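Pinned message: reference record for LysR family transcriptional regulator
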Amino acid sequence: MQSWDDFQLLLALNSAHTLRGAAKLLGINHTTVARRLHSLNQRYPIAVCTTTQNKLVFSELGEQLLTTAKAMQAQLQSQLPAIQSTIKQAKQQVNLSLPPAILQFVLMDVLSEFQALYPDILLNINTTYALSDLDSSEADVVVRASEQLDDYLVGHRLCPISLGYFMHRDYLNNRSEKDITWIVAHSQSRPAWLAETPFPNASVNLVIEDLVLRHQAAENGLGMIRGAHYIAQHFPQLVEFAPSSDSFADLWVLTHPNKQSLPNVKKLIQFLLTVMRNKQSLINQKVKSS
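Predicted structure (tokens):
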């Protein structure tokens, strides 16, 4: 059997268990599948696969060919990330994954510099707080805040994200102690960090999962938050009423070992490292501005 189409036919028949199911998987009609299977069976002294009581049955020869087809499929799957990376490079495309707030408040104003430097590169940005899977080529480069990373990833550490406690500048005016409340990200339990604040016993009255919208809610006078300096400075009515002893996590620029030498990946990583190191005093107020 020399045609990859024949191996695909066997894989589809094995997965679907019926001719009609295989036709659906292959995107062709039932008659074409039946004709191709008949042609395949005619090429060997014994049938490769037959239909018995509406069930597909592989002969011993068919099982051997199916094993070969599965091995070929596995080999192709293992090579797909590298193949996809090569295609992206040929198309002058590079995929970046990063948190929405980092794009909005740290990188948005400098993206034009990357476009000016590399006008032929299509920068495809996915904003998410989840860690994109570099193994499966969900992204070529990832910017992520993390305390622990997989050892095999190629990482460039930037700095921790500094935090503070914020409220609207007039939040305490004409408010009794029982009316002073917190806004937090999750409702499962009271955050441990409340204990270090000037208001450790204030109630939690609002839960907002989105990081930026928590800052917006605090500026609207809906409560107090633990927030990030690099975000809070964009909300002029917010004031920091107490420092946080902890930082959130270290900010990293990451890629997969198989991609670190790709030209477009190298260009993007170098650009990100340069501009973000220039903004370290924005991201972490404990870092002195150079």
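Pinned by admin. Summary line: The first strand starts at residue 49 and ends at 52.
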